Amino acid sequence: MVNDDKQIDRSNSIISLTTSEEEEEEKEEEEKEEEEIELLDRYNLVNQIRPNDDETSSLDYSDAETSSNSIDINDDAEDYYESYSSKFINFMNRNPTTYHVITHFRILLESNGFKYLPSNKIIEKLDPGFYYTTRDDLCLAAFVVGGNWKPINGSLFICSHCDALSVKINPGSSIKKDINGYNLLGVAPYSGSLNKLWLSRDLGIAGSILVKDFKTGKVQRKLINSYPEPIAFIPPIAPHFGLGEFDYNLQTQTVPIYGFNNDENAEPPTEEERDSILYGRHSLQLLRYISRLSKSSIPSILQMDLDLVDVQPSCRGGLNKEFIYSSSLDDRLCAFDSVYALIEFSHTLTKEQLQSYSGFNGVYLANHEEIGSESRTGAKSGFLVDIFKSIISTQVNQKKKKVPNELLANLIKSTILLSTDVTHAFNPNFKDVYLDNNFPLPNIGPSIKFDSNAHVLSDSLGWEFLNRVVDRIDEEFNIKLQHFHIRNDSRSGGTIGPIMSDGNRGLNGAKLIIDVGLPILSMHSIRSIMGYKDVGIGIKFYQETFKNWQGIIYEMEHGSD
């Protein structure tokens, strides 16, 4: 099990601790706190602070990075599903932006034995082991490579995206003039956000700021999060005004209100505040809020990349708690599951087994899928193929300056990519928009996606491959493979599957590219619904894929013994 002890409820323990056991536990907690402080400092995660409070409490990443104790819940399927649903809910509540998500996974991976490889440095030697790398703290790849691996052996990578719909604060948010005392915030939609679904929601602020250390001149990134405190609200027009149904203008009618007469009641700017590079681009009250939230002086804040995010907590729901209600399920769900599955798989390998292992397994979390993937951190950036080249370079003569094309071709043609994104669960209120017998349901299993026009890339070989993966999962977990296909009169959404097959910076010619995911309702709404078991289902399914892909391919090509 992934190192993560947050779910242990010691208050309900029936075991009476002796004095020595209590002392030992206190010692472990002190060591854990020291590790947490070091890790949080390393990644510049700042303490959460309420704007008007003097007391602070650190952002809680304890289930991600600092526990040295494993929770063994694998023996019972229900415990497994319950525990991982709780972990996922905690993860969603603490990590509202892509910056937070990637940083969380960095800490999680390091605490579970994965070594960081800087993406801008040449890898001269790579021992068998567990590794990860990032770009701009906005995308990530992590992998396990065995001592007997060769490029011809291929690889299996589970590819997801880590971005989600949000509302971006403008680089100059003061473009919106206050109206009759209302303080308005300049924002822009990210992908399909800022529509009617974002009205009447409690919105907090979260994201990244760049801060200058005036002693050293160094610029560092800090992450901030106002959760659970909302700071903005987008009010719709009341129906009493008789305007009927209409489309809100995104520039003039979906403007967040974040205060009333703040500037009139505020203390005048100090000379130091006036000298700030951000003074005039953002309201002084917003800058002071960010300063308190980040514990950084206003002049030290150079740039801000901030979102407005829904602060309603993720939670369990339904009469029997069979659902999870949350924002940003697309695609933080599959990203979470793939990383945890890789860590679970890594825990099954002893040092001796790792040395003799012939596999190369990993996860790739791309950014900006929701807006086309064309950024330097998106799936079109070639990040994964660059990693492949770096890994291959450790196996060739160091005097050679280039990776032989045939080695890269051998690796790609033997590689399997699972493009994992959420898919549309059946909505009983709109049953006519679904193709009969071609839709998934919650709490049953993953769903392979098909499209006759190749908007997704699953085929019959991929379907058979996944069937054999599911067949190997312990029966007590009761996981079944589902499938999804749209009606002929519907539009199909895209995934990074076709992007990963691109011949320019993708892995064109891969052995298999399979689009598969987990079902949710209300996709691209500010709030979505999923089955609570689907968190654990995804992890178990991906872990089994890591474990058995080589044997399944051999069996399909050569038959069973």
UniProtKB/TrEMBL annotation:
Compositional bias (Polar residues): 10-19
Amino acid composition bias (Acidic residues), ranges on this chain: 20-38
Any one GO molecular-function label of the UniProt entry: metalloaminopeptidase activity
Record-linked Gene3D superfamilies: Aminopeptidase i, Domain 2, Zn peptidases
Disordered: annotated segments: 1-43
Superkingdom of the organism of origin: Eukaryota
Cofactor(s) the protein needs: Zn(2+)
Family classification: Belongs to the peptidase M18 family.
Protein name: Vacuolar aminopeptidase 1
Organism in which the protein naturally occurs: Candida verbasci
